[in-house]
Write a structure and sequence with these properties.
The complex is a heterodimer of chains A (about 325) and B (about 250). By secondary structure, chain A is of the alpha+beta class. Chain A folds into two domains: about 160 residues, no CATH class; about 120 residues, Cyclophilin, CATH 2.40.100.10. Chain A has a seven-stranded mixed barrel with strand order 13-20-17-18-15-14-21. Chain A has a six-stranded antiparallel sheet with strand order 7-6-9-4-1-11, with no helix packed on it. A five-stranded antiparallel sheet of chain A has the order 2-3-10-5-8. Chain A is elongated. In chain A, about 50% of the residues are buried. Chain B is of the alpha+beta class. Chain B has two domains: about 90 residues, Gyrase A, domain 2, CATH 3.30.1360.40; about 140 residues, Cyclophilin-like (Cyclophilin, Beta Barrel). In chain B, about 25% of the residues lie in helices and about 30% in strands. In chain B, strand 9 and strand 10 form a beta hairpin. Chain B starts with a helix and ends with a strand. Classes of the chains: A alpha+beta (about 325), B alpha+beta (about 250). The interface between A and B is large, with 43 and 45 residues.
């Protein structure tokens, strides 16, 4: 079977699918792609299944060689994609022949880029998923010398999706967390009104934030008896600094969670480069569920939106720029109900 | 300050944990009765899992229910949980069936337990007394957390109520036996810790390649058995089975 041999790859690269649910009681969180929308886009472009895996790259790209005929596609944060030195379109199917060299440059305007192969990456399934969990030692570690075997050898190139608009959103929705009552009223009010800056302390485990309201202090001290955490929890450590927990979060935590970024918005946060400033809008559970329903409907509609590319790759930079500007307006209208 | 007694013991409180999680808090502290309530309620939920629930996660004082809110309406889940909570006094529930007792060998002190002397000092016991007390206790798995298969064990006496260290050891090996706050932590992977390492065990509760990747389950019991380095080297973690408790 054809595959992609890794020649060079950036730190923090992993294989990701939708993750492994059901093991948190044993100390293993679900993991999975930090940007599930990007994962679904690549699956739609290549006609892959919902459980197929892709390569997730954290900012840095890599260099790969095809071991046979292969159809690939990029998604997520835009990474300059070249085959034998020729620029290719991001978010579209690209055909490779044995020996072709594919390079990916660093991500622009986002953090996580995804490289998909037709049929998905056939790495070993561990605890029900292919997702790599680096700290826990689960799944394939994609490093130089490793070949990512593809589930299928070929396919039709030139089908793609337009760029999504979520990379420019600067307003995210959150619900108050299980321990928000630990924080005094004025701290909660400050939190809800704050502008947050994404710091460079971030990985698949979580993202440290710097709020402009100062440290989030609680009257009862900043430790609680350890309990289970969920995706998107905003955990406040002893120094009063918040961090949003992502796919590879620890399964349990002993710090209070003041809020939870909703499931429909967590991928947006994960894709924000360090230095990005954003606001949190506190919403009701009903609004969060409704937003999740809309996001799932959008994801389900992706295969139907895949269409032959109408633009020459040279125009793509312009096209992206236009879409990103449009997205600023779009980001604020989807407020939930 | 809230009245600590009322907050520590029931009635259980429900909190949303995002739109896809419901946290059932039986208390806000570590207490054997609270943990027993957690285990019993978790076992009852799993015996009759409402459709749309993805998994339940029992921890020291609460059960997290992860569910799909588009399949199971959050208000309906809450009503179901409230109904089941009202069905009995969970703080008085018997331990769930199918629990196992594990005999876990451990090399105490020396290079395997570099903090034994410090822990004994804090407990006001000699090193020998401390080992005897630790290995003599029947400990229970309060939860698995922090990392795959990493067990938090309760059941130690008041002498063990020692604080965590202020500094963090960047890495202790898998099998380290760590103590603080009347608990023992037994990790199955290397990890950073602020707890004191009094022993090292060849037992591993997590083996991703095994047909049974996790040996320990929440609610299981553990008895540590002091062994020599040579005995520990002969121990085969893959052969460990435990003994089912009725």
């Amino acid at each position: 079977m054809s595959g992609l041999e890794i020649m060079e790859i950036g730190a923090g690269a992993t294989v990701q699918d939708r993750g492994r649910a059901g093991w948190q009681r044993y100390g293993v969180t679900a993991g999975g792609a930090v940007d599930m929308v990007a994962l679904a886009e690549g699956q739609a472009i290549l006609g892959n299944g919902r459980d197929d895996a892709a390569l997730e790259l954290a900012v840095m790209g890599g260099r790969f060689r095809a071991t046979g005929p292969l159809l690939v596609a990029g998604s997520g944060a835009d990474m300059p994609l070249k085959v034998n030195g020729a620029a290719q379109t991001w978010r579209a199917g690209v055909a490779l022949e044995a020996g072709d060299e594919l390079t990916l440059g660093p991500a622009r305007g986002g953090v996580y880029g995804y490289l998909h192969v037709a049929g998905g990456i056939r790495s070993p399934v561990v605890l029900g998923a292919r997702s790599t969990h680096l700290r826990a030692g689960l799944g394939l570690v994609p490093e130089a010398g490793v070949t990512l075997e593809a589930g299928r050898s070929g396919g039709t190139p030139g089908q793609g999706l337009p760029a999504p608009d979520y990379f420019s959103r600067r307003s995210l929705r959150a619900m108050w967390g299980p321990q928000s009552a630990v924080f005094p009223e004025e701290v909660r009010a400050g939190f809800a009104a704050a502008t947050f800056r994404v710091t460079s302390q971030r990985d698949r485990q979580g993202v440290r934030l710097e709020p402009d309201c100062g440290p989030l202090e609680s009257a009862e001290g900043l430790t609680i008896v350890s309990d289970a955490v969920v995706l998107g929890d905003v955990q406040v450590t002893g120094d009063g600094q918040p961090a949003v927990l992502l796919a590879d979060r620890q399964p349990t935590g002993g710090y209070p969670r003041i809020a939870t970024v909703i499931g429909a918005d967590i991928h947006v946060l994960a894709q924000m480069p360090a230095g990005t400033r954003f606001r949190l809008e506190m919403v009701s559970r009903d609004a969060a569920v409704a937003a999740l329903g809309r996001l799932r409907a959008e994801i389900a509609a992706l295969p139907g939106r895949v269409a032959p590319l109408r633009r020459d790759p040279h125009d793509m930079d312009d096209l992206l720029a236009h879409t990103l500007i449009g997205g600023v307006v779009r980001g604020d209208e989807d407020d939930g109900d | 300050m809230t009245d600590p007694v009322r907050r520590e013991f029931g009635p259980p409180v429900l909190h949303d944990a995002g739109e896809a999680g419901l946290l059932v808090a039986f208390g806000t502290v570590y207490d054997p009765a609270i943990n027993r309530a957690v285990m019993a309620f978790d076992a009852a939920l799993r015996a009759e899992m409402p459709a749309g629930v993805i998994e339940t996660v029992p921890t020291i004082a609460s059960v997290l229910i992860r569910y799909d809110p588009l399949e199971l309406e959050p208000g309906r889940l809450r009503a179901t949980v409230e109904e089941r909570l009202a069905a009995r006094d969970w703080y008085d529930a018997p331990p769930p069936p199918g629990r196992r007792l594990w005999r876990v060998p451990a090399v105490y002190g020396g290079a395997a337990g570099p903090d034994l002397a410090e822990a004994a000092d804090l407990a006001g016991l000699s090193e020998e007394q401390l080992v005897e007390d630790h290995a003599g206790a029947r400990l229970s798995v309060l939860m698995l957390g922090f990392a795959p298969g990493c067990a938090y064990l309760g059941g130690l006496g008041a002498a063990w109520d020692m604080p965590r260290r202020t500094g963090i050891a960047p890495e202790v090996p898998a099998g380290s036996v760590l103590v603080a706050i009347r608990q023992t932590v037994l990790p199955s992977t290397p990890m950073p810790t602020g707890w004191r390492r009094i022993a090292t065990s060849p037992f591993r509760s997590f083996d991703p390649g095994s047909e049974r990747p996790f040996l320990l389950a929440p609610g299981d019991e553990i008895r540590f058995e002091p062994v020599s380095e040579a005995e520990a080297a002969r121990f085969d973690p893959a052969a460990a089975r435990g003994e089912v408790l009725e």
